[in-house]
Write a structure and sequence with these properties.
five-stranded antiparallel sheet; 10 helices; globular; alpha+beta; binds zinc ion
Length: 385
């Protein structure tokens, strides 16, 4: 993607979504609306995310929608969440629907922190992005009543689609909400920080669209081709689950994964979840993107269980926005560790990138230790009880 820079250009479409050129639209707004918020833009967007997630159905054929838009689970309630929640019927996770805490920094900035909170199994990882009928149809292969994960192309496809489409929904909503915020207060949203958020959303939009198109056409054709999935079986029942659509920057040995081509980031749809007595880590990309991740996937499949856990303990907390923890796991951590986990889970943008780089170094060092004993040391945040 061409670099659009940190200013809104006169000739580009106005960020408010009017389809007019910026200079013909919000550029000339001088005053903010009288009740416009003075909070930093990212805080405003985040707070609105809680309140104004729209209801829609993302199924490719919307002419056949039936039933209410429901709270669809990104991680299946009756298989994954209930297994984690156990008799408590609750899990622990970042709850973006709760009001973030605003933490003031020394330099006067304010950063929003979403806390980990006790969440009812019924509410964990739900979004309003499918109608009743299509939620049932699209995910039938892995829902209640379906057999355990069996490595079939269909199951791999559906897991990948699920991890992708829920992130796609959130991305689409973020863009919509940003546009609304911009419209009410164009002046405040011209700051460098706001334009940076907008550029990130634009880039993501561009990155997500071809993936959406692929999934849509396969679903409409009743097929599940064109997706490559790396399956890693873990021989124990883990106490957490997670889904994400991310580009990991470092492989297990701390080497860079070259996932960005011509400015476009190629991501993997990742799902990790327990079943009775075992667990699965699934990582999928488009067939055409296989070359980027092939080496990394092979590492993951061939690694010792210690090395695999070492890597996941390092990397997953950084990508744990959607992670669900069993009450046992969360309560096994000291307050200190709970705080560290919350901090990692809230990192994003350039702070997240910086942290990932540090972790990359740590992975490289661990790989240099030929005795392999580094992989046996206990990490600060241990996801494996
Ligand atoms: Zn405008
Ligand atoms: Zn529908």
């Amino acid at each position: 993607m061409e670099l659009l820079g940190w200013k809104i250009k006169d000739t580009e479409p106005c960020p408010c979504g009017s389809n007019k050129a910026y200079k013909e639209c919000c550029k000339n707004a001088t005053e903010a609306a009288p009740n416009a918020s003075k909070k930093p833009p990212e805080v405003q967007v985040m707070e609105k995310m809680r309140a104004s997630m729209e209801k829609c159905c993302l199924y490719p054929d919307q002419t056949s929608c039936k039933g209410k838009i429901k709270e669809a689970h990104a991680l299946q309630n009756n298989k994954i969440i209930s297994l984690l929640a156990g008799s408590e019927h609750h899990v622990y996770m970042l709850n973006a629907k709760k009001k973030p805490i605003l933490v003031p920094l020394e330099n006067g900035e304010v950063i929003p922190i979403v806390e980990v909170s006790r969440t009812s199994a019924n509410d964990a990882t739900t979004e309003t992005c499918f109608c009743d009928l299509h939620d049932n149809i699209a995910f039938a292969a892995i829902e209640k009543g379906a057999p355990d994960f069996d490595d079939s192309e269909e199951m791999k496809f559906v897991y990948a689609y699920k991890a992708f489409i829920f992130e796609y929904y959130k991305q689409t909503m973020s863009m919509k909400i940003f546009r609304q915020c911009f419209k009410t207060n164009p002046k405040a949203f011209q700051s460098k920080e706001s334009v940076a958020i907008y550029r990130m959303l634009q880039l993501k939009e561009k990155e997500f669209e071809p993936i959406k198109k692929h999934f849509d056409s396969e679903i409409l054709a009743g097929a599940h081709n064109g997706i490559f999935t790396c399956v890693v079986k873990i021989a124990e029942q883990i106490k957490f689950a997670d889904y994400a659509f991310i580009a990991l920057s470092y492989d297990m040995n701390g080497n860079r994964i070259r996932h960005t081509k011509k400015g476009v980031m190629h991501r993997i749809a990742l799902t990790i979840f327990p079943e009775q007595g075992k667990s699965w880590l699934l990582m999928s990309c488009l067939e055409g993107e296989k070359k980027i991740y092939e080496k990394f996937f092979k590492q993951m499949q061939e690694a010792t269980v210690q090395k695999l856990k070492f890597y996941l303990n390092m990397m997953l907390p950084l990508f744990s926005e959607n992670m669900v923890l069993s009450p046992d796991l969360w309560k096994s951590w000291t307050e200190d560790i709970q705080g560290a986990y919350t901090y990692y889970a809230n990192l994003n943008g350039s702070d997240g990138k910086r942290m990932e780089m540090c972790l990359g170094f740590a992975l490289k060092n661990a790989n240099r230790d030929k005795s392999g004993s580094t992989y046996n040391t206990l990490p600060k945040i241990n996801l494996f009880l």
